[in-house]
Write a structure and sequence with these properties.
alpha/beta; ABC transporter transmembrane region fold; four-stranded mixed sheet; 26 helices; 14 strands; 65% helix; binds adenosine-5'-triphosphate; ATP binding; nucleotide-binding
Length: 777
């Protein structure tokens, strides 16, 4: 049977030899053509279609911007739509292309990267006498030791091979003993290198994190960069993953670059000595090697994809995926009630798909580059190494003239060291040649590995440029945001601006309003416009003046700017005009959905104070218990005690959370309380008790509410009409309640022209929506 098969194979071999040869050539040809296309076409594309590519990247940015705006505002707004132009408008597109090009330079190994990197280095290594310098010093020492060890091991291997070839067992065992003895310091040095690299990475990370946290929490920058500025797509991703990657890459690159440099230097010296010992020319080898390395480096640089840009985009897409996950976690209950898992799943899937598509593209781009890199570094360099190593063997040696006296002495077995040193005899036995070859090969390997690591570091540096750009940009934006400098592409709608027009410097709005702190606890708003972060002017000019004890009721239809006024009073939104005078640190805001902090029940009440602040204020737990009684939450204290740590956002009901927020108000007792429908889920009797208690405590109320039962606690009223106009007056509660009753009566009557007219009139006076009028008519 085997003979049958072999005969068949023989036959088929004869029959198919020609076809096989053709097939092999076709496969090799196809592989080469694909290779050339994959490497060459992107190059060609880079030179020929550069602008288009940038516009494509702009489109990607636009998609991102749209996503971003949807996420932030709940409705789709973007710079092109809001100006009335369309995505297809070439003028707008090219203008934006230009602006985008100026703003977002592509991360690469360039001047911008060096400047950004130096900025980060100054943060990571703040002075010459810091822990990081000590760690880097230790790391450097171990790297140098490692290099010397490599050279020693290369020589040792050469000697071992020589004694094997010579069949000299005694010396072989001696060298082997040395080999094992070296292993102990070698493993220690290697482990220390790895340990120090990780320690340096952690130290760098800590410095960057501390710096970023300082900036993030300075002047409410965490709020400003999300609401008022559009430059940071996902701050959480930059604060966590990007910082970590920068720190670990820098630490890794330090070893990756310094050690190869030592390796190259020491290996070159050792190789030169070795070649010299064989009386060969020491220049030919380095010249050939340098030529090949330089050409390879140039070729690789030419065909290198934009790794910096690719990793920056990857980080951005990862950040978006994380963001979508985060939204589901924080809105789990609402989503579950709505049964909205299908929509959420589709959002998650599409975010994941965007990431995987990008990764696939990145892997494909890397594949061809890595292939070329391997080809050059593994095969071309090895071949060159073999040529260089073989030169001293094949080329005629520079045999120096041997002194006749020495020859005579050598033949008689005597040595005279006084004779001239340039009179040498080279032992060209097989064992010596083997030793030379093994040592030289090892040294060359050390050198070529070092060059390979240096060159592949270029890829790491370009990738580092991507992360560096993200972290450095974050620092810049946080610094600017804390100083009130924002960048958000906005186009004011002229028809809405009324008397007030936002002034622009380039494409950025200028906050020209003046802000003062009052010494007598007054609030004075003088001709201040209410302008959203998108530069929509909601109210062109507002003027009100409040003193402690002036309890203000704020009413008006949805979206008329009631909460926005609170944002301006609290300093969250810029003042674009007029003058604003507020007391410093005397206002306490309570929203409709209060924030529950991580911690125990006590932490919920005293937030944003810490326990130490509470002790300093001489407030005891007995006082907290009284506060909890005032807001009817004493049962929670009985149930959970003040010290139990729980997820209070999930545990407390909506009404309980609102009462907890009022407990917070009673704990802090500010001069002014900004209450934004903060008791809408609390029963009317408890709500009234709480309002009365607040007034009794001397807190002045600024209340946004739709509940008439709260009117009686207020003395002034600010009524917005939703068209940009407002009325500020003393509140006549009886009048207002009468109007409210009349309105309720009218609504139960049959429709008529008179009814509609009167309803419109009453709604105007009450500052309420005209919806009922529309429905009843
Ligand atoms: N961060 C933001 N960026 C852009 N526009 C915003 C932002 N926050 C609010 N707005 C817009 O400002 C306008 C006024 O909002 P505001 O929250 O002040 O309304 P409101 O009077 O409190 O309404 P409601 O009674 O519904 O709470 C709305 O049109 C809203 O879309």
């Amino acid at each position: 049977m085997p003979s049958v098969v072999s005969k068949f194979l023989d036959k088929s071999e004869q029959a198919f030899t020609k076809n096989q040869a053709l097939l092999s050539s076709a496969v090799i040809g196809a592989a080469l053509a694909t290779y050339a296309y994959k490497i060459g076409y992107p190059l060609l594309e880079n030179y020929m279609f550069k602008p288009n590519k940038e516009c494509n990247s702009l489109n990607n940015n636009l998609v991102k911007l749209n996503q971003h705006q949807v996420l932030k505002n709940g409705d789709v707004r973007n710079e092109i739509n809001s100006s009335g132009a369309t995505h297809g408008d070439p003028k707008t597109k090219s203008a934006m292309c230009k602006r985008n090009r100026l703003r977002n330079s592509i991360p690469n190994f360039n001047l911008a990267f060096i400047l950004q990197f130096l900025k980060l280095v100054r943060i990571m290594i703040p002075s010459l006498f810091c822990t990081e310098i000590a760690l880097l010093g230790g790391h450097t020492v171990f790297l140098i030791l490692r290099t010397f060890l490599s050279i020693y091991v290369a020589n040792l291997e050469g000697a071992i091979v020589k004694f094997i070839v010579r069949k000299d067992s005694g010396n072989f065992i001696k060298q082997l003993g040395k080999w094992f003895a070296v292993a102990i310091p070698a493993t220690f040095i290697n482990s220390m290198i790895r340990y120090l690299e990780s320690r340096i990475a952690l130290s760098f990370r800590t410095r960057l994190v501390q710096h970023s946290y300082k900036l993030y929490f300075q002047n409410q920058s965490y709020y400003r960069v999300t609401v008022l500025d559009a430059r940071l797509d996902n701050c959480a991703q930059r604060l966590t993953d990007d910082i970590e990657t920068v720190a670990s890459t820098v630490s890794h690159l330090y070893g990756q670059i310094t050690k190869p440099c030592f390796d190259i230097l020491i290996a070159a010296i050792a190789l030169a000595n070795l070649v010299k010992s064989r009386n060969s020319n020491i220049l030919i080898g380095p010249v050939i090697i340098s030529g090949v390395v330089v050409v390879s480096a140039l070729v690789l640089r030419l065909v290198s994809p934009r790794f910096g840009q690719l990793v920056a985009q990857e980080a951005e897409k990862k950040g978006y995926l994380r963001h979508v996950h985060g939204r589901i976690v924080s809105n789990a209950e609402e989503i579950a009630f709505y049964n909205g898992h299908k929509v959420e799943q589709s959002h998650l899937r599409s975010a994941y798909r965007i990431l995987t598509q990008h990764l696939e593209h990145m892997f494909a781009v890397k594949l061809w580059f890595v292939m070329l890199e391997q080809f050059l570094m593994k095969y071309v360099w090895s071949g060159t190494g073999m040529i260089v190593v073989s030169l001293p063997v094949f080329l005629p040696q520079v045999v120096k003239q041997v002194h006749p006296k020495k020859l005579k002495m050598l033949s008689s077995g005597l040595h005279d060291n006084t004779l001239s040193t340039d009179i040498e005899v080279v032992d060209d036995s097989v064992s010596e040649r083997t030793q030379y070859f093994t040592t030289a090969k090892n040294l060359l390997l050390t050198g070529s590995n070092a060059v390979e690591r240096l060159m592949s570091s270029y890829k790491d540096i370009v990738e580092l440029a991507g992360h560096t750009a993200r972290v450095a940009t974050m620092f810049t934006v946080l610094e600017e945001a804390s100083q009130g400098i924002y960048h958000k592409t906005v186009v004011a709608k002229k028809e809405q601006t009324g008397d007030f027009e936002v002034e622009f410097n380039g494409d950025q709005p200028v906050a020209k309003g003046k802000v003062f702190y009052s010494t007598n606890n007054e609030i004075i708003v003088k001709n201040v416009p209410i302008v959203t972060p998108n530069c929509d002017v909601i109210c062109p000019s507002l003027t009100i003046s409040l003193k402690p004890g002036y309890h203000l009721l704020i009413t008006g239809p949805n979206g008329c700017g009631k909460s926005s006024l609170f944002r301006i009073l609290s300093g969250l939104w810029p003042v674009y005009g007029g003058e604003l005078t507020t007391p410093k640190n005397s206002m306490f805001y309570i929203p409709q959905r209060p924030y529950m902090v991580i911690g125990n029940l006590r932490d919920q009440i005293i937030y944003p104070d810490t326990y130490a602040d509470m002790i300093n204020k001489q407030i005891s737990e007995a006082d907290l218990r009284k506060i909890m009684e005032l807001v009817h939450l004493d049962h929670i204290v009985e149930r959970d005690t003040f010290h139990e740590v729980k997820d209070w956002t999930d545990i407390l009901s909506g009404g309980e959370k609102q009462r907890m927020a009022v407990a917070r108000l009673f704990y802090h007792r500010p001069k002014y309380a900004l209450l934004d429908e903060c008791t809408s889920a609390v029963s009317i009797d408890v709500e009234s008790n709480m309002y009365q208690t607040a007034i009794d405590m001397g807190i002045t109320l600024l209340t946004i509410t739709h509940r008439p039962t709260l009117w009686k606690f207020h003395t002034y009223i600010l009524q917005f009409d939703g068209q940009g106009y407002w009325e500020f007056s003393e509140l006549n509660c009886v009048n207002r309640l009468n109007l409210k009753r009349e309105k309720d009566d009218l609504l139960s009557k049959p429709n008529s022209k008179e009814k509609t007219a009167r309803l419109t009139e009453i709604n105007r006076k009450l500052g309420e929506d005209d919806n009922e009028v529309l429905i009843s008519s």
